[in-house]
Design goal:
Length: 603
């Protein structure tokens, strides 16, 4: 087994899942491997392999095709039976198992079947499997569970094919071609804080997973850039700059402080409040003076957000509340024609079965709100952008709002009644970020933690750790900064993503920057070690692709190879369930398998 060749295989698996825009491939490897691993290569041509007519899909999908043929022969009268394929929980029994026997027995018993129980059904399923290079052997366990051991040669062959054709061939095939992922979505004139961190990180990761799976993703930043708060902001801006000389963000200074000052004035000065309310009317009427002031405030906020997105390696296209505002009247007219909108206490509402409070779509003062904007946005995404899956990434506290407006969309016929059908709308809820005291994560002065401060501290702490290890003596200042950013930001991202998004998680720099356990630092160490092995091998990797072969003779080699092959089905499951933590668990276990391989398979 050529360690240099095999370790190269992990690079394409890790590359699409980088936790930061910076990879350790472009900065000094944290770990310098002290031992030189000598290659063991078998010379052979792989040209014929590239032309093989191989089956496609994940391991589970390919096994499902084989067991589907067997089930048709075993129980031809049961036409609606899908193969139930899952990885074996105990590796001593096999790699995968087919779990159809017990379910089939409950269907066929008492119908004059030849079978006497689930175990004979399992035996028949095993015997009726078509010949395949995929399977080495099968066995029966318990009540007819068919355990499958994959062929070692087939595992190696499949991995070599990926190495030649690229990681793209392992992309899962999802039932949608275009999706909208609505995430981050800060409010204009307010700084992004730690609460925006989860939406931004989770949303970006879901978008990456879908993009890898060949789904066209429309990354939407649904910023809060419209509403009554802009009346007070604009009037306060006019008071501070009566001649309209605001030219840049330095003129206003701290936009958050500017917002708080205008809010204080709005709450304490009735005359100012009246002017602010008139300003909203002027803005919505399109008066140039007010539109210009509004655009300036949005531009200043946007500039600040973009700097943070660049640091996080996140790309979004802004389509804020103001974009959908012109569509609201027409959308409400459509809903009215469906008989969904009713009058209630001066407001226009949609009553939702099972909910005590209706969905308000027009307030009693005639103004629009979140529900009216969200309904207009959903209509636009379905009808204009032709999205088949619309995914909203917000905190779990907004769950009821989404349940209500999704229900309204179903009643209007925009979405199917069944949640598993397409087009589909999904709310990706996430829990709170907590401090180590178990309370909502805040500064010592009980202020919400600003995202820019959090990222600065992550980089600073990581840089201090690198200097403590003497890296400032080995690297340039630029290398030190890039590595601190890559590891620091990656650690923050991974600490969020490795948890089930629906739960709260405790924010701890000490824990996330630990180089042991399930952390980004540990994974990046594994990545750096792979880079080091490849570099020290002195081999031409492109040449190895053409002339080398893989022989997974050692148990740890086979374990690592099988784990690599399971990448497509893990991505597919993570996309389907919208749970990135499954992918994080896969990566951590991959790093563990690699460490065992590296320890036990030195050449």
């Amino acid at each position: 087994m050529n360690c240099s060749h095999f370790t190269f295989l992990l690079q394409p698996v890790l590359a699409p899942l980088q936790f930061s825009r910076l990879s350790l491939l472009s900065s000094p490897c944290i770990l310098r491997t002290p031992r030189r691993l000598l290659p063991r290569v078998k010379a052979s041509s792989l040209a014929s392999m590239a032309n093989d007519n191989e089956t496609s899909g994940s391991v589970k999908q390919q096994l499902a095709k084989l067991f589907e043929e067997s089930l048709r022969v075993t129980v031809p009268e049961e036409l609606d039976v899908d193969p139930l394929i899952a990885p074996c929980q105990n590796a001593n029994f096999g790699d995968y198992q087919c779990n159809n026997a017990m379910g089939l027995w409950s269907k066929v018993k008492g119908k004059g079947t030849q079978f006497k129980g689930p175990k004979p059904i399992g035996e028949a399923i095993k015997e009726n499997l078509p010949a395949s290079e995929i399977i080495d052997k099968c066995s029966i366990a318990g009540a007819g569970f068919v355990n499958v051991v994959l062929s070692r040669q087939w595992i190696a062959k499949s991995i070599r094919k990926m190495l030649i054709d690229g990681i793209e061939i392992w992309a899962p095939k999802l039932p949608v071609k275009r999706a909208v992922v609505d995430f981050s979505s800060p409010n204009i004139a307010k700084e992004m804080h730690v609460g925006h961190l989860r939406s931004t990180i989770i949303g970006d990761t879901l978008a990456r997973m879908l993009e890898y799976s060949n789904v066209e993703v429309l990354r939407r930043n649904h910023v809060g850039d419209w509403g009554t708060q802009f009346g007070m902001l604009i009037e306060f801006l006019f008071e501070k700059f009566p001649n309209g000389e605001v030219t840049n963000d330095q003129a206003i200074g701290d936009l958050e402080a500017f917002y708080k000052a205008s809010k204080l004035r709005f709450d304490s000065d009735p005359a100012f409040k009246e002017k602010a309310q008139r300003a909203v009317v002027s803005l919505q009427a399109g008066e140039e003076k007010y539109r210009t002031a509004w655009a300036k405030i949005c531009e200043i906020s946007r500039s600040g957000y973009e700097k943070l997105y660049q640091r996080l390696g996140v790309h979004l296209e802004e389509k804020g509340e103001s974009f959908y505002n012109p569509y609201i009247p027409g959308v409400l007219e459509i809903l009215s024609k469906h008989g969904l909108i009713e009058e209630s206490e001066g407001a226009r509402v949609i009553f939702i079965e099972g909910k005590k409070v209706p969905l308000i779509v027009v307030k009693s003062d005639g103004g629009y709100n979140y529900a009216s904007t969200d309904l207009a946005a959903l209509w636009y995404r379905l009808n204009e952008e032709k999205a088949e899956w619309i995914i909203y990434v917000t905190d779990v506290g907004q769950r009821e709002h989404f349940e209500m407006f999704f229900t309204a969309a179903k009643r209007a016929g925009w979405l199917p009644a069944e949640d598993n059908n397409y087009p589909r709308a999904s709310h990706v809820g996430f829990g709170l970020v907590l401090g180590e005291d178990g309370k909502r994560f805040r500064t010592r002065s009980t202020e919400t933690v600003k995202l820019v401060d959090l990222l600065d501290e992550a980089k600073s702490k990581c840089k201090a750790a690198l200097i403590e290890r003497g890296k400032d003596k080995e690297w340039t200042q630029e290398e030190l900064d890039k590595t601190a950013e890559a590891v620091g930001y990656g650690a923050v991202k991974y600490a969020d993503l490795k948890n089930n998004r629906t739960t709260n998680y405790t924010f701890s720099f000490d824990q996330m920057l630990n180089d042991k356990g399930n952390t980004a630092v540990y994974l990046l160490y594994a990545h750096a070690r792979i880079c080091s092995i490849i570099r020290k091998s002195g081999k031409d990797i492109e040449e190895l692709k053409k002339t080398g072969t893989l022989d997974l003779a050692h148990a740890d080699e086979r374990t690592l190879g099988l784990h690599l092959l399971q990448f497509p089905e893990v991505v597919e499951e993570s996309c389907t369930n919208l749970l990135p933590n499954g992918l994080c668990e896969y990566l951590y276990n991959l790093s563990e398998d690699f460490t065992r391989f590296y320890t036990n398979c030195q050449v």
